[in-house]
Automatic annotation (TrEMBL):
<comment type="pathway">
    <text>Cell wall biogenesis; peptidoglycan biosynthesis.</text>
</comment>
<dbReference type="InterPro" id="IPR036615">
    <property type="entry name" value="Mur_ligase_C_dom_sf"/>
</dbReference>
<keyword id="KW-0436">Ligase</keyword>
<keyword id="KW-0131">Cell cycle</keyword>
<dbReference type="Pfam" id="PF21377">
    <property type="entry name" value="MurD_N"/>
</dbReference>
<keyword id="KW-0067">ATP-binding</keyword>
<dbReference type="InterPro" id="IPR005762">
    <property type="entry name" value="MurD"/>
</dbReference>
<dbReference type="Pfam" id="PF02875">
    <property type="entry name" value="Mur_ligase_C"/>
</dbReference>
<keyword id="KW-0573">Peptidoglycan synthesis</keyword>
<feature type="domain" description="Mur ligase C-terminal">
    <location>
        <begin position="309"/>
        <end position="422"/>
    </location>
</feature>
<comment type="function">
    <text>Cell wall formation. Catalyzes the addition of glutamate to the nucleotide precursor UDP-N-acetylmuramoyl-L-alanine (UMA).</text>
</comment>
<keyword id="KW-0963">Cytoplasm</keyword>
<dbReference type="Pfam" id="PF08245">
    <property type="entry name" value="Mur_ligase_M"/>
</dbReference>
<keyword id="KW-0961">Cell wall biogenesis/degradation</keyword>
<keyword id="KW-0547">Nucleotide-binding</keyword>
<dbReference type="GO" id="GO:0008764">
    <property type="term" value="F:UDP-N-acetylmuramoylalanine-D-glutamate ligase activity"/>
</dbReference>
<dbReference type="InterPro" id="IPR013221">
    <property type="entry name" value="Mur_ligase_cen"/>
</dbReference>
Length: 445
């Protein structure tokens, strides 16, 4: 069986290792450059590969193709494979075939990284041997090849879910759904929603779907597609009591899952902000289903340290707080960030726009933002949206300059917030690179 892998990043190399171990004839192809550490791994494992091109003769003869999530379905090589009837799947689908371990699959437009890391932390603190994979950490396929974990917590993007046929998480979580990545879904929100709900497509009555009951998009889809969902539903909500699941009452999280009541005052959570209350509720639901002790859940929720590049407090300089929220690559994430600001804010925004409607942020900007620094190659939409709303709007194409300007605008008691609402590829390698450059620039002030 010939397994061809498109993309030589974390998921591609992980799949190559697992494929080789399972006896496939493996070939990896990347249209760009492969990082030197990955090339070393491929060489050590005697896996043939190419970079800088896709040689059709070596790809179209595949029995199966694993496509990395970053490669769109409309790329020419993928179209040719699909036209030739070759099966094209995701790393998650490929690796799932080779493990008996239970998985918790977590998706959503926002909050999925925090929820995934918090869930993993709760289960580890409870003594469970679980791996962390998907969009974060070492690839799922790589970990399945090493076969050291008894379960996995997977952060799953819509792109990863697009390539699944049989993958079935025992526990699925949908944190929320808002327009994102619409450039990959023909600018059709319904296609993106359907991609997210693929997470529950193969679930049975023995499985669980945990979801945000306050999210109108999720509720509307569930209402319309009742017969498609076989899993047991566990809602979480900030408002009022749900008959089952988790809700907030009197500033306390109350969870009634499997007849076990768990309570925790919101002010004891280590993570701040309404959105993090929801992330904590989702993670708590998983932990309770996995039979983690209440005391362990409580302790873990109160000492979890959060995620780098997500509302990360960097430094306070002359009583100005600098916050790195580089992971906010869409409008909804930035809405949460601005919502959690309690002081006048200098906002650094911009990058590669994925079809953003900035007007959704207007109430927040009017209330919280004193100055905007547009950091991107093309800032036209940002200027058009906010030029008449704030007193100061400055354009720049360098992080160093953006932070220096922010430092000039900010006064004692203010906050400087990097929350771009955009992808990073115009000026940076990725959102991590953008966040690190911000932190370095702040430290150099």
């Amino acid at each position: 069986m010939r397994l061809v892998i498109l993309g030589g990043g974390e998921s591609g190399v992980g799949t190559a290792i697992l494929g080789k171990k399972k006896g496939f004839d493996v070939f990896l192809s990347d249209a760009g450059k492969i990082k030197s550490n990955y090339k070393e791994v491929l060489a050590i494992n005697k896996i043939s590969f190419e970079e800088g091109q896709h040689t059709e003769d070596l790809i179209l003869n595949a029995d199966m193709v694993m496509k990395s999530p970053g490669i769109p379905d409309k790329s020419p090589i993928v179209k040719k494979l699909l036209d030739a009837g070759v099966e094209v799947i995701s790393e998650i689908e490929f690796a799932f075939e080779y493990t008996q371990a239970e998985t918790v699959g977590i998706t959503g437009s926002n909050g999925k990284t925090t929820t995934t890391m918090l869930t993993h932390y709760l289960l580890r603190q409870g003594g469970q041997n679980v791996g962390l994979a998907g969009n974060i950490g070492k690839s799922f396929a790589w970990q399945v090849a090493e076969n050291k974990a008894e379960g996995y917590v997977l952060e799953l993007s819509s792109f990863q879910l697009d390539g699944i046929k049989k993958y079935r998480p025992h526990i699925a979580v949908i944190t929320n759904i808002s327009p994102d990545h619409l450039d990959r879904y023909e600018y059709n929100f319904d296609l993106y929603i359907a991609a997210k709900f693929r997470i529950t497509a193969n679930q049975t009555a023995d499985d669980y779907l945990i979801y945000d009951a306050d999210d109108e998009t999720i509720n509307a889809w569930l209402e319309k597609n009742k017969e498609k969902v076989k899993a047991q539903l566990i809602p979480f909500s900030l408002s009022g009591a749900t008959k089952k699941g988790i809700y907030v009452k009197d500033n306390t999280i109350i969870s009634k899952i499997k007849k076990h009541e768990f309570t925790m005052p919101i002010n004891e959570l280590s993570l701040e902000g309404k959105h993090n209350v929801k992330n904590a509720m989702a993670a708590t639901a998983v932990a309770q289903l996995k039979k983690i002790r209440k005391q362990t859940i409580r302790e873990s929720l109160s000492n979890f340290q959060g995620v780098e590049h997500r509302l990360e407090k960097v430094l306070k300089i002359q009583n100005v707080q600098y916050i790195n929220d580089s992971k906010a690559t869409n409008i909804n994430s930035t809405f949460y960030a601005l919502d959690s600001m309690n002081t006048p804010t200098v906002w650094i925004v911009g990058g590669v726009d994925k079809g953003n409607d900035y007007h959704e942020l207007m109430p927040m900007v009017r209330e919280k933002v004193k100055g905007i620094i547009a950091l991107g190659v093309d800032n036209a939409k940002i200027i058009e949206a906010f030029a008449n709303v704030v007193d100061v709007l400055v354009e720049t194409t360098s992080m160093d300059e953006a932070v220096k300007i922010a430092n000039k605008i900010a006064e004692k008691g203010d906050t400087v917030l990097l929350s771009p609402a955009c992808a990073s590829f115009d000026l940076f390698e990725n959102y991590e690179d953008r966040g690190r450059q911000f932190k370095e620039a702040v430290q150099n002030l």
